[in-house]
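Researcher: Before we compare anything, I want clean individual predictions. No alignment, no superposition, just each chain on its own. First chain goes here; please echo the sequence and then give the structure tokens.
Model: Echoing the first chain and its structure:
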Amino acid sequence: MKRIVITGAESTGKTTLALSLANHFKAPLSTEFVRSYVSEIKRPIEASDLESIAKGQQTLEDASLNDTEAGLVFHDTNLLSTLIYGEYYYRNNLDWLVEQFLARHYDHYLLCMPDIPWVPDPGQRESPAARDCLHSKFLMRLKQLNLPFTCIQGTADDRLRIAIACVATLVA
């Protein structure tokens, strides 16, 4: 089972790409847990929410692994996002989250670049400036951990074409 993570800063087209890839490859997709969590709690996220968010994300990912027929699963973010956002917004020591993240295996990351217009999403997104800073943190962490990744950029069609070609080589 190949596990592909679509990752990156806020408002970089991750969900759109993840849905398109899952549809193209007829493969399961785990969604981004924090999106539904924010809607449910009806308040801004606090540092104390990080553990619940991490557990919820892991549960969604694990559930998507039940459909092994495709031999491939897409994850619309993973614990790396929880880790980076937690460090950025709360500056907490998140060693426990680093351990949980490193205990999970993913085959490849598709890093969505911040080269598309930023779109506001109340309660979910901060600003274009935050997006650029967070993007730098994603890129740095992927390199620091020596994780395999491909940068996804350009128009929606370009992004999908690049991602499909990348995934096709992984499953070949």
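Researcher: Okay. Second chain, same rules.
Model: Second chain and its structure:
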Amino acid sequence: MPIGDDIQQKEFRDSHQKAMINLMYTSTWLNERMRVFLAPTDLTPQQFNVLRILRGAQPEPLSTLQIRERMIDKMSDTSRIVDRLVKKGFVEKSTCKQDKRLVDIFISQQGLNLLKTMDEQELQFPSHLSALSPEEAEHLSFLLDKIRD
């Protein structure tokens, strides 16, 4: 459905305004679907992001600063997110051997198992971007990158 129909607005100042509103609306739409996907796991989108970052870094540990640099939401309180994941058993912390002032953060086997299950569940559902061809998805990524340049 066109953005004008979704938000019940017939006219836009120009195509740039329409694209900006469409981008914000679609971002919110995708975020809501992510929250529904995450609801059974009791994870927030930020916690899910941290788990995926840690899985991607393994077997190497990361510090909270390194995690924050890789996060989608840079404004997140990374230390608090990690502490909550530790309480849930998905993450482990230990003192850094090279610098005792730092903490190494690893994804636990329980966290890896959860992500594996979630990966399998995600494959069972049609992608929210399945209306796009692979070429269109690549072009969309290119355009989004271009906006941020």
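Researcher: What stands out in the second chain?
Model: Residues 6 and 108 are 42 Å apart (CA to CA). Additionally, Helices lie at 3-6, 15-38, 45-57, 64-70, 78-88, 109-124, 134-148.
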